[in-house]
């Protein structure tokens, strides 16, 4: 109980800190004069109060956290911040005669903070801009949290793919205090994230978006979130230039931010070719985009090859990087196309990026291991170590991938079964869970690109919220809390 | 080339041997006086001729096979025997004014020999009994081959789950000649298989089936094949007693035959509790059957709880053991039920049984590994070996499971993509491939329990035939042939 309260202490501080991000919509509300300043001041006050009470109420239990407490902290942060995120949404909608349930608001906030981008709202074009912008602020803040989580926190907890492979966290390190290492790594990564955000923002503006649209779409792009200021997503802009900018920044955001940092430090692009994931990721995603473009042209979905390429590449990159934008209703294409896009969304993004899913590093390890297995079968006496970029992958890391894959498959099976049991139509059940667990956003069927999550019932919405959270925290971080071993002394 | 011809030499002999199994339908043709004796004599002559020519033509290249040649041999046996299997079918149908294409006949034979049980034929009730019986003969012979393959041949090739775990094939052993070990193991297993078959046959007869029906259904049951002498499968008999017998023998056939042999040797049932798979397999399958029964009763699909239990348990055991019989159109149930049944079909049968799929042993290793991973995350310095029934599972075996799972997932993805590209409706595409790759038989949609594979086009039928073969040979055996390493000197 003492340790739990020590975790709550840090959680309270994090929540108070998160409350301050409401200054962003406040500023925009003033700029745009949309009359929501008061709403955000109220929201801020409530959120801050909750955080501070939790923080002060547990001051007596303040203690240095052990790595093991990290699981609880991270899981609680990702469950409690969305609670605060609901405040402005609930105040706005229910205060303006539009009903928004707590379930729906929590889903929307979770979708924001996990950068999933599945939405329950329609007519977002008519929303008060600053309230709409709050959703994007959650994306952007969430994206920041995701990177630090993946590159600095999860490795300390012994969860994740890339970090373990790089073995840059030697054993004893894990026993050290959490803070110093996180702080220094985080600073470097924040700098990259900021830089990318600014360039993306200006590029969108230069390509013709309004300042407001550019800001929001920037947040959604670099976090690989997927919310849009328009119900019709990128189809609203109908601009190949804007789409090209989006593609570039989605790809950049799908690369490990530690790799960006190294490239920046070294002042060259060699870091990318040395990174095991960057090139396979970009090549897979773009290659599939081009293939689908050819397919859509050959099958006469689009008569013009360039048009086919434009729509195929944009939507493929968007789903494969787990951003989740759309510039057309790609569910109208032959089903194989969206299915392949979603399949890539499950597998292709890099660890340490803002993308979701299994991550390219695990896929590469699986492929290498399978190749070695084939060789081992043919040459039973040969020693066949598994190498990635010339570095040996320890057997322990391979077996941890195995465990991850089982949990991943099991999570999908259980969640889909619950969706079906609660009455969802099969296409919706499968793709909603996959879209949420991999933090993609749109699925197919009732949760497809031309639709949203509104048709799901409350139980299903909670399932999806849960899927987003465990997916974002790479399963182990949350699921370890459900083991008796965790709660034993 | 020399080695290839040495393999063809053994293949020819195997084919000639297989031709002699046509004596079975010959005898039944005489008993039942259905006038097909001549057809089988012709078929036998053709098949024998092909086999003998291949055997004699390569006599000069006769050589002791290396383990590595086993991959080619096994893959070729399972592709060429179905060729011979088509002869009686083609002669019968095309000789009696009913068109049967080679593609369809090959599918039917492959489905027979891999004990998959998906069929392209309808009106089987009206077929000449001995020709119908030929399909069951293929099931029975196939089942025999499968057991020997799994328990004696694949371990020598370093493929498969159970054998590697038991480590009863020490390294140097692999270099030994193939023949002696196979011969002794095979004899023991054949004895068990024969014994099980005779008891099953008599039980069916005693429960009211005709001698002919009992014979055919026996072959289909012990091989976990799924062909039936009636279009309506077990619904034709409408007998709880017959269904109960079927359940018992499906469960027995889903247990490792080496375990049966040990139990027989020791004259007790301790071998089953020592076997890592037997109890989890039976418990999972029966448990799910009861759960689905409860669900069907609660959701009012059946008003009577016993009726619900009867249909649920029979069909669940049938699909989960990969037999593939049906006594009702379970696709009319809420979709979650057939999906869970198919999911078990992918995972639950034992290695060394006649069942298909991933096999319980791999699943157990995955689960154990995941548990250890959780413990390892909580206690980074603890040594966490993975144990199964008190025996250490080497890391090498775990990583080979990892490779298997990747190949399995990849095979499904590629084959489903090809099904969709060739125009199959999604439910059909997914379940046809899963039903074939796991040697279950019926899927859902166009290939569901009330339908058959007839609606697929030729390309799709070939895909399904391929899926049945690679699934039956545990993927590696066939797929290793597609590596350049295999063909290098
Ligand atoms: K997303
Ligand atoms: K079967």
From TrEMBL, chains A, B:
Pfam families: TrkH (PF02386). It is found in: Cell inner membrane. The keyword Membrane applies. It comes from the Bacteria. Its main location: membrane. The chain crosses the membrane at residues 7-31, 37-59, 71-93, 140-165, 186-204, 241-258, 278-298, 335-358, 397-421, 459-482. GO terms for cellular component: plasma membrane. GO terms for molecular function: metal ion binding; potassium:chloride symporter activity. It is a multi-pass membrane protein. Keywords: Cell inner membrane, Cell membrane, Ion transport, Membrane, Metal-binding, Potassium, Potassium transport, Transmembrane, Transmembrane helix, Transport. K(+) binds at residues 116, 224-225, 322-323, 439. Low-affinity potassium transport system. Interacts with Trk system potassium uptake protein TrkA. Belongs to the TrkH potassium transport family. This is Trk system potassium uptake protein. It comes from Orrella marina.
